[in-house]
Design a protein that fits this description.
Layout lengths: L3 H23 L8 E8 L3 H13 L5 E4 L4 H5 L1 H9 L3 E4 L27 H19 L6 E2 L6 E2 L2 E2 L1 H4 L6 E2 L6 E2 L12 E2 L5 H10 L6 E6 L11 H13 L4 E4 L1 H14 L3
Parallel strand pairs: 1-2, 1-10, 1-11, 2-3, 4-7, 9-10
Antiparallel strand pairs: 5-6, 8-10
Helix pairs in contact: 2-8, 7-8
Length: 271
């Protein structure tokens, strides 16, 4: 026979379950999270293998690493990149030679054979496809996302997005706040926040600000505790610690998984 106290406890438990289920149902992200967070790393640098990936692995957080195939670490440390993919990190497409438009300001470092202004659209597409093939040989994956080298979206004066749509599922740029609103169907201008030279407090504030919009927030890193355009390993670690400590707020995922989720949700709601 149930006692009045048992009945009250059962009712309270069912109410809590109902609240939790309702919160998860109303959330735009898996697990009832408020924000989707994608941590991206450009250029296949040694500091990614030496610092960023060990920090991510320690907290079981995934990262998206945009690989330029001609970088030395691909040739010399390919087994480590393969192991990173096996741990759940995404290897994304950042082209073979990291071509950029030399005609823009502060681009004196761009070599003539890397000049995207001199690429044809066909040459651009073939290099993206070649990088896809190389990455598949490393991780066995068919689906790939892309990061525009230098944020440039023109090859030989032509918009590259129509060609990219045939080769990758989404593409990353950068913005002031790093936010991509979930009803935005343009998955070839996905935002990210440049983490170079930022403090842990600044990085965490970007993630927290995204809660107001329940948006996807991206972070873009190059060097982590080394290499160039770097964030300190301490600031990077503190951001990861904050994200890992609040799984109810943040769904930390790869760009590939975030894009797939957005496509499913937009199709479900006919956005």
């Amino acid at each position: 026979m149930q006692t009045p106290l048992f009945g009250k406890l059962l009712a309270a438990t069912l109410a809590l379950w109902s609240i939790a289920a309702g919160a998860e149902q109303n959330s735009p992200w898996p697990g009832g999270a408020e924000v989707a967070v994608v941590l991206t790393y450009d250029d296949a640098l040694d500091s990614h293998l030496d610092v960023a990936i060990p920090q991510l692995n320690q907290l079981n957080l995934p990262g998206t690493f945009y690989i330029s195939g001609a970088r030395p670490s691909i040739r010399l440390r390919m087994h480590e990149w393969r192991r990173a993919a096996e741990r759940g990190h995404e290897l994304g497409n950042h082209m073979l030679y990291h071509p950029c438009r030399k005609s823009l300001s502060n681009r004196s470092w761009v070599k003539p054979w890397q000049d995207l202004d001199n690429y044809s659209l066909e040459q651009f597409a073939e290099e993206v496809q070649a990088t896809n093939n190389m990455l598949k040989a490393i991780d066995g994956k068919k689906q790939r996302t892309f990061a525009y080298p230098c944020g440039d979206m023109l090859a030989g004066g032509e918009n590259v997005v129509p060609a990219l749509k045939k080769l990758v599922s989404g593409a990353r740029l950068f913005s002031d706040d790093g936010q991509h609103h979930r009803d935005n169907k343009d998955l070839y201008r996905l935002a990210s926040f440049d983490g170079a030279d930022k403090s842990a407090e600044e990085l965490i504030a970007v993630a927290e600000a995204a809660r107001d919009n329940n948006s996807l927030v991206g972070f873009m890193f190059h060097g982590v505790g080394g290499d160039y355009i770097e964030v300190t390993s301490e600031a990077h670690q503190q951001l990861l610690d904050h994200l890992a400590a609040h799984p109810d707020r943040y769904w930390v995922t790869t760009m590939r998984e975030a894009v797939a989720h957005l496509k499913r949700e937009q199709a479900r709601h006919n956005l």
